[in-house]
Amino acid sequence: MSHKNHQFADLLKNTNVIPVIVINSLDEALPTAKRMMDMGYNSLEITLRTKCAILAIKEITDQMPELNVGAGTVLNQQQYEEAVMAGAKFIVSPGHTKQLLNVADQSDVPYLPGVMSPSEIMNLAEIGYQYLKFFPAEAAGGIKMLKSILGPFPHIKFCPTGGITEKLSQEYLALTNVICVGGTWMVN
Hints:
By secondary structure, the chain is of the alpha/beta class. 37% of the residues lie in helices and 18% in strands.
Protein backbone atom coordinates (compact mmCIF):
# COMPACT_ATOMS: atom_id res chain seq x y z
CA MET A 1 0.00 0.00 0.00
CA SER A 2 1.44 3.33 -1.04
CA HIS A 3 -1.24 5.64 0.32
CA LYS A 4 -0.09 8.83 1.98
CA ASN A 5 -2.39 8.74 5.02
CA HIS A 6 0.58 9.19 7.36
CA GLN A 7 1.06 12.68 5.88
CA PHE A 8 -1.94 13.95 7.82
CA ALA A 9 0.25 14.63 10.85
CA ASP A 10 2.43 17.01 8.81
CA LEU A 11 -0.48 18.52 6.92
CA LEU A 12 -2.34 19.28 10.15
CA LYS A 13 0.68 20.37 12.19
CA ASN A 14 -0.86 23.69 13.31
CA THR A 15 -4.50 22.68 12.88
CA ASN A 16 -6.89 21.32 15.45
CA VAL A 17 -10.18 22.50 13.94
CA ILE A 18 -11.11 22.15 10.27
CA PRO A 19 -14.11 24.21 9.12
CA VAL A 20 -16.39 22.04 6.99
CA ILE A 21 -17.84 24.33 4.35
CA VAL A 22 -20.64 24.01 1.82
CA ILE A 23 -20.17 26.53 -1.02
CA ASN A 24 -23.53 27.18 -2.67
CA SER A 25 -22.32 29.67 -5.25
CA LEU A 26 -18.85 30.35 -6.62
CA ASP A 27 -18.88 34.00 -5.59
CA GLU A 28 -19.01 32.84 -1.92
CA ALA A 29 -15.78 30.82 -2.24
CA LEU A 30 -13.04 33.43 -1.77
CA PRO A 31 -14.89 35.60 0.77
CA THR A 32 -15.68 32.49 2.87
CA ALA A 33 -12.08 31.25 2.68
CA LYS A 34 -10.75 34.70 3.57
CA ARG A 35 -13.14 34.93 6.54
CA MET A 36 -11.97 31.52 7.78
CA MET A 37 -8.32 32.54 7.41
CA ASP A 38 -8.98 35.83 9.23
CA MET A 39 -10.51 33.77 12.06
CA GLY A 40 -7.25 31.80 12.29
CA TYR A 41 -8.14 28.62 10.39
CA ASN A 42 -5.40 27.40 8.04
CA SER A 43 -7.17 24.26 6.78
CA LEU A 44 -10.63 24.06 5.17
CA GLU A 45 -12.73 21.18 3.96
CA ILE A 46 -14.98 22.09 1.03
CA THR A 47 -17.71 19.48 0.74
CA LEU A 48 -18.61 18.18 -2.70
CA ARG A 49 -22.32 18.59 -2.01
CA THR A 50 -22.86 21.39 -4.53
CA LYS A 51 -22.29 21.79 -8.26
CA CYS A 52 -19.69 24.54 -7.78
CA ALA A 53 -17.60 22.79 -5.09
CA ILE A 54 -14.80 21.64 -7.44
CA LEU A 55 -14.56 25.12 -8.99
CA ALA A 56 -14.52 26.64 -5.49
CA ILE A 57 -11.61 24.39 -4.48
CA LYS A 58 -9.72 25.43 -7.62
CA GLU A 59 -10.38 29.13 -7.07
CA ILE A 60 -9.37 29.07 -3.40
CA THR A 61 -6.22 26.99 -3.99
CA ASP A 62 -5.21 29.26 -6.90
CA GLN A 63 -5.85 32.53 -5.05
CA MET A 64 -4.91 31.48 -1.50
CA PRO A 65 -2.16 28.83 -1.80
CA GLU A 66 -1.24 29.30 1.87
CA LEU A 67 -4.48 27.54 2.87
CA ASN A 68 -4.72 23.75 3.17
CA VAL A 69 -7.88 23.16 1.18
CA GLY A 70 -9.32 19.67 1.18
CA ALA A 71 -12.32 18.10 -0.49
CA GLY A 72 -14.96 16.49 1.70
CA THR A 73 -17.93 14.21 1.06
CA VAL A 74 -15.87 12.46 -1.64
CA LEU A 75 -17.89 9.38 -2.57
CA ASN A 76 -16.17 7.92 -5.64
CA GLN A 77 -13.07 7.82 -7.81
CA GLN A 78 -14.26 10.53 -10.21
CA GLN A 79 -14.80 13.01 -7.36
CA TYR A 80 -11.43 12.12 -5.83
CA GLU A 81 -9.63 12.71 -9.15
CA GLU A 82 -11.53 15.94 -9.90
CA ALA A 83 -10.73 17.30 -6.43
CA VAL A 84 -7.02 16.48 -6.83
CA MET A 85 -6.96 18.14 -10.26
CA ALA A 86 -8.62 21.21 -8.73
CA GLY A 87 -5.79 21.46 -6.19
CA ALA A 88 -7.20 19.77 -3.09
CA LYS A 89 -4.41 19.02 -0.60
CA PHE A 90 -6.37 16.26 1.15
CA ILE A 91 -9.44 14.12 0.50
CA VAL A 92 -12.09 13.23 3.09
CA SER A 93 -15.01 10.82 2.79
CA PRO A 94 -17.83 9.95 5.18
CA GLY A 95 -16.98 6.25 4.79
CA HIS A 96 -14.71 4.31 2.46
CA THR A 97 -14.93 1.89 -0.45
CA LYS A 98 -12.47 -0.40 -2.21
CA GLN A 99 -12.57 2.01 -5.15
CA LEU A 100 -11.64 5.00 -2.97
CA LEU A 101 -8.88 3.07 -1.20
CA ASN A 102 -7.48 2.03 -4.60
CA VAL A 103 -7.46 5.57 -5.99
CA ALA A 104 -5.88 6.81 -2.74
CA ASP A 105 -3.11 4.25 -3.24
CA GLN A 106 -2.33 5.76 -6.64
CA SER A 107 -2.50 9.37 -5.45
CA ASP A 108 0.03 11.65 -3.79
CA VAL A 109 -2.83 13.47 -2.05
CA PRO A 110 -3.57 12.05 1.43
CA TYR A 111 -6.94 10.42 2.05
CA LEU A 112 -8.89 10.52 5.31
CA PRO A 113 -11.46 7.69 5.13
CA GLY A 114 -14.51 7.69 7.37
CA VAL A 115 -15.29 5.01 9.96
CA MET A 116 -17.74 4.45 12.79
CA SER A 117 -17.09 0.87 13.92
CA PRO A 118 -14.21 -1.19 15.33
CA SER A 119 -14.34 -3.52 12.31
CA GLU A 120 -13.87 -0.61 9.89
CA ILE A 121 -10.97 0.68 12.02
CA MET A 122 -9.35 -2.79 12.01
CA ASN A 123 -9.72 -3.17 8.24
CA LEU A 124 -8.08 0.19 7.57
CA ALA A 125 -5.37 -0.25 10.22
CA GLU A 126 -4.52 -3.60 8.63
CA ILE A 127 -3.64 -1.82 5.36
CA GLY A 128 -1.67 0.93 7.09
CA TYR A 129 -4.12 3.74 7.80
CA GLN A 130 -3.32 5.64 11.03
CA TYR A 131 -5.61 8.67 10.58
CA LEU A 132 -9.35 8.24 10.20
CA LYS A 133 -12.43 10.41 10.11
CA PHE A 134 -14.93 9.39 12.82
CA PHE A 135 -18.35 10.13 11.32
CA PRO A 136 -21.08 10.90 12.21
CA ALA A 137 -19.31 11.58 15.50
CA GLU A 138 -22.12 12.64 17.81
CA ALA A 139 -24.67 10.19 16.38
CA ALA A 140 -22.13 7.32 16.53
CA GLY A 141 -21.36 7.64 20.25
CA GLY A 142 -19.18 10.72 20.32
CA ILE A 143 -16.65 11.17 23.09
CA LYS A 144 -17.74 7.99 24.91
CA MET A 145 -17.16 5.94 21.76
CA LEU A 146 -13.71 7.44 21.13
CA LYS A 147 -12.72 6.82 24.77
CA SER A 148 -13.92 3.21 24.44
CA ILE A 149 -11.95 2.49 21.27
CA LEU A 150 -8.72 4.04 22.58
CA GLY A 151 -7.89 0.80 24.44
CA PRO A 152 -7.76 -1.54 21.44
CA PHE A 153 -6.56 1.15 18.99
CA PRO A 154 -4.03 3.39 20.80
CA HIS A 155 -2.11 3.95 17.53
CA ILE A 156 -5.09 5.30 15.57
CA LYS A 157 -5.84 9.05 15.48
CA PHE A 158 -9.25 10.42 14.62
CA CYS A 159 -10.77 13.54 13.14
CA PRO A 160 -14.34 13.42 14.47
CA THR A 161 -16.92 15.28 12.40
CA GLY A 162 -20.70 15.47 12.55
CA GLY A 163 -22.73 17.27 15.18
CA ILE A 164 -19.72 18.81 16.92
CA THR A 165 -20.27 22.23 18.46
CA GLU A 166 -17.61 24.73 19.49
CA LYS A 167 -18.11 23.73 23.15
CA LEU A 168 -17.89 19.98 22.37
CA SER A 169 -14.81 20.50 20.20
CA GLN A 170 -12.71 21.24 23.29
CA GLU A 171 -13.82 17.98 24.92
CA TYR A 172 -12.99 16.01 21.77
CA LEU A 173 -9.59 17.71 21.42
CA ALA A 174 -8.74 16.74 25.00
CA LEU A 175 -8.79 13.05 23.95
CA THR A 176 -5.36 11.59 23.14
CA ASN A 177 -6.70 9.79 20.05
CA VAL A 178 -8.14 12.95 18.45
CA ILE A 179 -5.82 14.90 16.14
CA CYS A 180 -8.41 17.47 15.01
CA VAL A 181 -12.17 18.00 14.71
CA GLY A 182 -14.31 19.08 11.78
CA GLY A 183 -17.22 21.42 12.32
CA THR A 184 -19.51 24.03 10.85
CA TRP A 185 -20.15 26.29 13.86
CA MET A 186 -17.66 28.95 12.69
CA VAL A 187 -19.08 29.12 9.17
CA ASN A 188 -22.65 30.18 9.97
